[in-house]
Amino acid sequence: xxxxxxxxxxxxxxxxxxxxxxxxxxxxxxxxxxxxxxxxxxxxxxxxxxxxxxxxxxxxxxxxxxxxxxxxxxxxxxxxxxxxxxxxx
Amino acid sequence: xxxxxxxxxxxxxxxxxxxxxxxxxxxxxxxxxxxxxxxxxxxxxxxxxxxxxxxxxxxxxxxxxxxxxxxxxxxxxxxxxxxxxxxxxxxxxxxxxxxxxxxxxxxxxxxxxxxxxxxxxxxxxxxxxxxxxxxxxxxxxxxxxxxxxxxxxxxxxxxxxxxxxxxxxxxxxxxxxxxxxxxxxxxxxxxxxxxxxxxxxxxxxxxxxxxxxxxxxxxxxxxxxxxxxxxxxxxxxxxxxxxxxxxxxxxxxxxxxxxxxxxxxxxxxxxxxxxxxxxxxxxxxxxxxxxxxxxxxxxxxxxxxxxxxxxxxxxxxxxxxxxxxxxxxxxxxxxxxxxxxxxxxxxxxxxxxxxxxxxxxxxxxxxxxxxxxxxxxxxxxxxxxxxxxxxxxxxxxxxxxxxxxxxxxxxxxxxxxxxxxxxxxxxxxxxxxxxxxxxxxxxxxxxxxxxxxxxxxxxxxxxxxx
Amino acid sequence: xxxxxxxxxxxxxxxxxxxxxxxxxxxxxxxxxxxxxxxxxxxxxxxxxxxxxxxxxxxxxxxxxxxxxxxxxxxxxxxxxxxxxxxxxxxxxxxxxxxxxxxxxxxxxxxxxxxxxxxxxxxxxxxxxxxxxxxxxxxxxxxxxxxxxxxxxxxxxxxxxxxxxxxxxxxxxxxxxxxxxxxxxxxxxxxxxxxxxxxxxxxxxxxxxxxxxxxxxxxxxxxxxxxxxxxxxxxxxxxxxxxxxxxxxxxxxxxxxxxxxxxxxxxxxxxxxxxxxxxxxxxxxxxxxxxxxxxxxxxxxxxxxxxxxxxxxxxxxxxxxxxxxxxxxxxxxxxxxxxxxxxxxxxxxxxxxxxxxxxxxxxxxxxxxxxxxxxxxxxxxxxxxxxxxxxxxxxxxxxxxxxxxxxxxxxxxxxxxxxxxxxxxxxxxxxxxxxxxxxxxxxxxxxxxxxxxxxxxxxxxxxxxxxxxxxxxxxxxxxxx
Lengths: 89, 466, 481
Fold this sequence. Notes:
The complex is a heterotrimer of chains A (about 90), B (about 475) and C (about 475).
Chain A: H1 4-13, H2 21-34, E1 52-54, E2 82-84
Chain B: E1 2-9, H1 50-62, E2 70-71, E3 74-77, E4 87-90, E5 104-108, E6 111-122, E7 126-130, E8 138-142, E9 149-155, H2 162-178, E10 190-196, E11 204-209, H3 212-231, E12 239-244, E13 249-252, E14 265-266, E15 272-274, H4 277-286, H5 291-302, H6 306-314, H7 316-325, H8 331-342, H9 349-354, H10 359-370, H11 376-389, H12 393-399, H13 408-421, H14 423-431, H15 436-446, H16 453-464
Parallel strand pairs in B: 11-12
Antiparallel strand pairs in B: 1-9, 1-10, 2-15, 3-4, 3-14, 5-6, 6-9, 7-8, 10-11, 12-13
Chain C: H1 7-15, H2 21-39, E1 42-45, H3 49-61, E2 73-77, H4 104-111, E3 115-120, H5 154-161, E4 167-172, H6 178-184, E5 187-190, E6 210-215, H7 218-228, E7 258-262, H8 272-287, E8 291-295, H9 300-318, H10 338-345, H11 351-362, H12 373-393, E9 396-400, H13 416-420, H14 427-431, E10 436-444, E11 447-455, H15 460-471
């Protein structure tokens, strides 16, 4: 059972402030509760598999500059820096 | 006990880990070396650099690490402005050994330092803080470095002293340089985190150490700090500290570790990469000769003294020059020129870059000394001029008039002159043979040191009749 | 000018000079202007489309080589990047985002002289199955404007079935192409994972999603697949399909093919009309010589929970980059500290995206991964094994695409868990990387029903042949615009 505190902690971790707090928690709660069905799937011994690629099919090591001045299309500041908020020290 | 996490940029690659931007970001305008992939724009996907995987594998092999058949990439999720995607693509061993290198070891003198793991990952961007007070502080980001291929070498906590750390780092940078994968002298190319704990204390992690030089200092500072706490019976808490490279101290980080949960999971945009045995064999065959094996060869084949061989083999710049210039007969002379004359002249990265010396020059120098065309003394002057101008040795000898006077008739004339001027000394040679050295010196004076010493001695003896 | 023709008919008509690309595209834009106030399929319209069509007409007249699309007007889901165009993902977070590059599928279609008439609506970041979670308002089902068009590629399905384009590209993470295709009576196709490059598709859950076409006919889907499939160096997960021609032999029929009817997909909660349409489809296929038999796939009942666990985890990570620092909407950062700034900036995500990101932070977290995320991955593995076993016995698997009929706008929006169950028939193909298609099959009380066929990995061509055979068994009424 997920607690409200856990969900508040996670919303902090995910860096999203939440409006309509109560309704929000209720819905997320219901969704996560539904996932409890996974407990009865009996899959503990399953292996996890992933697609594979051979080394030679990966990108060759070539320098190709991007054809546009990309920074001009992004938020920039003091010339061509990107500006971020101050960091808590 | 000290354990290290060393981050080494693969500066010798052409492109970044997941995009074709330049791997060596130095020298670009701010945010000029970026593209939709390394800036993490919506819709972009990583395109893994095969050479980066190969280079990382070679590093693993050189550090005697196991290398798996398949490697996997994971996402390490956390928010920071230098991370364009707010996650870092890195490696882990949570579904078996899937990082590029497994356990291995390096010998530091007689001590074995164990390697836990080697992983390939992307470097974040660079942050610049402006403004003095926290109120007006602003954060500026340059993403040119974001996505630079980085190899992280994680060691076991096997070090006991800062000196062991330093010795290990020296050996490690020599190995990395010898492999041709990285240039440790580039600023920021080698960085490290260290875990330090003393007996009875908790583990303290020191992050953000920007050079190997500072790493030793940071470890030393931290041990002293912990011992001082311990002696005053103050508890050493488990924490993360940052290395303040201006004040040269470690500072407690206020960011709470418990607020981090990296939520590692497999990066779905990169399939598991198969590194088959044939590929590994090929990589091994292409690996440069190891420093240890080079040294042994220099000693056994060319009878170069062990200490000289050590210097020569461990610095890639010198050993490359040696390899490209030496022959069976001149090897010792070239080793000598490199380790006695050249080393003082090219002791910095800038000087090496400015130098116009080629292996061909070295070969000419050694041959000229061996055939007595050039005195050892003059060869130093010639070397100096070669570094500056890159001109052929023969031209430099002519221009600076450095060549040995080995023409018998010319030398005989000078000797006749000296004998007539130094009648007393000539007389003395008959009772005290050592006096002849005085006469050789006089000949040298007149020839500005260019007289072939052996020939001069023989001619002197002949003319005086002793 | 008849806008209701198929893509292949359009190409034929332009080729022989019966119609011009300019006239057809102009008429299509007119249709958008007439219908879209009501339907809201489009988020932006390409005002240069007619000029572009004129250029293609010129090429045709001068005998220059013309791409295979001949100026065909296509709509594009707004999570696919078109260079120098707005790409919003129907999110306030990306309201002003202009893509600086083309997605691979866009580049390929441009090379074949397709014309993009506009970017179409979707659930925000493709999270949803009704298009009601678009930050810019829902789209309406052209068959009944009170009903949802399905989602998340709702705008794609609406634009195809309301003749606002001849074909569309959507993306399918758990049914997001097939579900709206079924609800709007269009053909919707989710290919084998890796058949179409995802480069330039804004990720929601990248390990299982695929771009897919929505068209008016199965043949058009095969044609679109010819245009956009194939290995792409920009996407390491693409597979080499050896330039397969999906159109050739599409009428090969299904005689002798073995079709498994998935028991878990016609069970509890199914609408009787959907069940009877499914039975009808089975008997029609049998009459064409197919052999149909029921099959049970145990893992299907866990598939939706596994699906949401995996997709939320990946979404939580894929959407982390939206911190409003490098690009985004206007929200000054003065006075804020980094974490508080981005936490506030990220309030611009809609409620469903926010919920899923919180879930995406929870289910793979260090204390919970074992209970949720790892189990979900294992269900995915086991389900894949079950499906692979099934394809040893069967050539195809069949089910209704969606177990229910299109429902009313607002009906399920406040009940996320009841929405989960609408996905039950579609997520399996995504979790197992198999190709799947929704074929329009019936209209019940004025609402469309689609039948889903699934095939084994890389059997996309065989799947299209079966879908074509099924399509030929019915003549459906025209959409009542």
